[in-house]
Design goal:
single chain; 247 residues; mainly alpha
Length: 247
């Protein structure tokens, strides 16, 4: 029963993250609600991702740890702070939540007569012509590894035994804002495979053909973060990470 509640929270949390944050991204860059001010859209989208995550951490965090991101879960697995079997179950719930959130968001937008999936899209990530700065495929791969590693490191360190108690949610939310501020013009910013897969399935086409990168690269970044975290916390009794995933 406890596991079912955890998985339900992860499904719901990931779905809410996609509906709210990807929804703001679609309004900003698909509907062009900020007109010619691209920077305003970047700021609004980055804040949407960060603020909704803060809200989720303090609401469903006590139930599941509020990973709502396969990369975060893999970071906990790789650093020995979560069992593999439970982690895989988390991944399934997160991907399902991301897909459900994307289709729910799409249905919400279809109630507008000016919405067109082929024109407006659904906040998908991309490289090449799909990138605002036209970054290459392997450039995007590197960017997603670096940004995900930064974000997952913030999660792992802010939930560390030696961290300031009760402050993890704020640190994690700000961390997501930071990586989006730099990443949106580059790739759209994934750092979350579930967030990327759902919208890509809805939009299809180029977004779907490129989504593999935004699944694989963040997972690689999570492993890199876990290794760095283990290296920096190894060797001191008081610095051993907590067993529980307390995101």
């Amino acid at each position: 029963m406890l596991l079912a509640r955890k998985l339900g929270a992860e499904f719901l949390g990931t779905m809410v993250l996609v509906v709210v944050a990807v929804g703001v991204a679609t309004e900003s860059f698909g509907f062009h609600l900020f007109g010619l001010s691209y920077s305003a859209g970047v700021a609004a989208t980055a804040l949407a991702f960060g603020l909704v995550l803060v809200a989720l951490v303090y609401s469903i965090g006590p139930i599941s740890g509020c990973h709502v991101n396969p990369a975060v879960t893999l970071g906990f697995i790789s650093s020995g702070r979560m069992k593999l079997v439970e982690g895989v179950e988390y991944l399934v719930a997160q991907f399902a939540g991301g897909i459900a959130g994307a289709y729910l968001l799409y249905w919400m937008f279809t109630t507008s007569p000016i919405y067109s999936k082929s024109v407006v899209g659904l906040g998908t990530d991309g490289y090449g012509k799909q990138s605002h700065l036209f970054v290459s495929q392997w450039g995007a791969f590197l960017i997603e590894i670096v940004l995900t590693a930064i974000f997952v490191l913030i999660v792992l360190f802010s939930t560390h035994k030696a961290s300031i108690q009760g402050a993890a949610g704020v640190a994690i939310g700000f961390g997501l804002v930071i990586v989006h501020l730099i990443g949106i013009p580059l790739t759209g910013t994934s750092v979350n495979p579930a967030r990327s897969l759902g919208p890509a399935l809805v939009v299809g086409g180029t977004a779907l053909s490129q989504v593999w990168l935004f699944i694989v690269a963040p997972l690689v970044g999570a492993i890199v973060a876990a290794l760095i975290h283990l290296l920096l916390t190894y060797g001191s009794e008081e610095d051993v990470p907590a067993v529980e995933a307390a995101t």
